[in-house]
Amino acid sequence: MHALAQAYAEESRECVRVAFEAVHTQKALLAAFSELVDQYYRIVRDKPVMRDISSALRADKELIEIELAESRVCGAMLADAIRRVRPRTAAKRVGALAFLIWQLGEETMRLAVVHKRGEGAMLVDAYKRMSLRAIEEG
Questions:
Q1: Which residues of 7-25 are buried (b: 16+ CB within 10 A; e: fewer)?
Q2: How far apart are CA 46 and CA 23, in angstroms?
Q3: Environment class of 124 (CB within 10 Å of its CB; exposed 0-12, middle 13-18, buried 19+)
Q4: Dihedral of alpha carbons 23, 13, 135, 112, sign
Q5: What CA–CA distance (Å, rounded) separates 95 from 124?
Q6: How many CB atoms lie within 10 A of CB 118?
Q7: How many C-beta atoms lie closer than 10 Å to residue 87's C-beta?
Q8: What φ, ψ does residue 59 adopt, rounded to 5°?
Q9: CATH class of 2-137
Q10: pTM (2 decimals)?
């Protein structure tokens, strides 16, 4: 499970890096984030191994640390994109916000996949709308 979690984390990190490195406008930032959320939900929903990894992440202290480290890395990429779009945004504040948004995304996906598809989709949509508003405000 550790090897799968590490492999998934590396793949995910690269996807996030590519999505955010092209961001130079508020509109592009919001679109990139939105697409990443939708893409991640499709992957977690449609690949049973992703649900297994997600469940295991809550049961193993070492795996929890892997997930938190990835949330910090991906959150930092989100924070960098926000600061690129709005350079006057306070770095510490946006860093904390981006980390929280990222980790809440992980929790949202875990919650969404244990519900029926329609309800899961509504949960993901609510998370996305909430996060997009927070990103807009910086």
A1: ebbeebeeebeebbeebee
A2: 28
A3: buried
A4: positive
A5: 22
A6: 8
A7: 7
A8: -105, -10
A9: mainly alpha
A10: 0.91
Whole-number pLDDT of residue 130:
98
- For the chain, give the secondary structure using H, E and C: CHHHHHHHHHHHHHHHHHHHHCCCCHHHHHHHHHHHHHHHHHHHHHCHHHHHHHHHHCCCHHHHHHHHHHHHHHHHHHHHHHHHHCCCCCHHHHHHHHHHHHHHHHHHHHHHHCCCHHHHHHHHHHHHHHHHHHHHHC
Q: Exposure of 71 by Cβ count < 10 A (0-12 exposed, 13-18 middle, 19+ buried)?
A: buried
What is the length of the chain?
138
Instruction: Report d(CA 7, CA 30) in Å as an integer.
Output: 27
Write the pLDDT tens digit of every residue in 68-85: 899 999 999 999 999 999
Mean pLDDT lowest for which of 64-68, 87-91, 106-110? 64-68
CA–CA separation, 5 and 54 (whole Å) = 9
